[in-house]
Design goal:
mainly alpha; transmembrane; transmembrane helix; about 35 residues; membrane; 1 helix; about 85% helix
């Protein structure tokens, strides 16, 4: 697992993007549900 390989960077970037996206989605769902 080389930190300089683009595959690892893209995978970690996509993982972070998906995590933030799902987090904001859950936040909007909870806000809409409590409202």
């Amino acid at each position: 697992m080389l930190p300089s390989s683009p595959e690892v960077f893209s995978v970690s970037f996509v993982g972070t993007f998906a995590a933030s996206l799902s987090l904001s989605y859950l936040r909007s769902v909870f806000t809409k549900g409590s409202y």
